[in-house]
Amino acid sequence: MRPSGRKTDQMRKISFERNFSKHAEGSCLVKFGETHVLCTASLEEKTPPWLRNSGKGWVTAEYGMLPRATGDRMRREAATGKQGGRTQEIQRLIGRSLRAVVDLEALGEKQITIDCDVIQADGGTRTAAITGGFIALHDCLKWMEARNMVKVDKVLKDHVAAISCGIFAGQSVIDLDYLEDSAAETDANFVMTGSGGIVEVQGTAEGKPFSREEFLTLLDLATAGTAELVAMQKAVIAGQ
Question: Which CDD domains does the protein's record reference (predicted)?
Fold first, then answer.
């Protein structure tokens, strides 16, 4: 039995609240159970220096956790004067994941920054950020489309979503919360597109190495989970 009482293939309660921030071109408050992440999309009508005059745009991401997102207060990274390695790794993952479904030429010489701020953490913050970040990105592009700047269906090639899977207490499970994540024998994150393509897989054995068969079981769980997340994204977007 999982600590939460969920079945091995059962995700936490998931919700998306669009237009959460009144100032951002696109925003979404995403909740995976007790993990809550605010994703905002900000448009700049310029590209990074290395893309100037290339005709291509850019999508990037920044990630951070509020001081009391966890049980004990964390010091703000701004107070230390530098970002930690974990923060840099996660925000690069988010950026890569979103760019995988964006036609940068169709975007034109503009940059969209997705800020993912963890309000409350209970495992799976990076996967929630990617899944909610896609909705914020979509809504930013809709804002641009309303101003005749782009066509959403030309820029977005597919949906993208992410989910964690792992081996906990000898069982392959999906969408690990903190209690499971902190004690998992294997921990993995899967980023997949709506068409089933794999963008990225991060998998680590915390003790005993996992087998090929166990990995394929985790992949099957992730494939079903991300398909469910994409269906949720589509339903939320269709409700605009």
Answer: RNase_PH_bact
- Alpha-carbon distance 4 to 31, whole Å? 16
Q: What is the DSSP letter of 170?
A: T
- This prediction has a pTM of 0.96
Do the domain assignments include residue 4?
Answer: no
Angle subtended at Cα 182 by Cα 77 and Cα 233, rounded to the nearest 5 degrees: 75
Whether 9 maps to a domain, the answer reads: no
CATH number for position 43: 3.30.230.70
Note the pLDDT tens digit of each residue in 164-200: 999 999 999 999 999 999 999 999 999 999 999 999 9
Q: Please give the annotated binding residues, written as ranges.
A: 86, 124-126
Helices (H), 160-206: 178-181
Which residues contribute to the annotated binding site for phosphate?
86, 124-126
Of 61, 175, 191, nearest to 131 by C-alpha is 191
Q: What are phi and psi of 176, to 5 degrees?
A: -70, 135
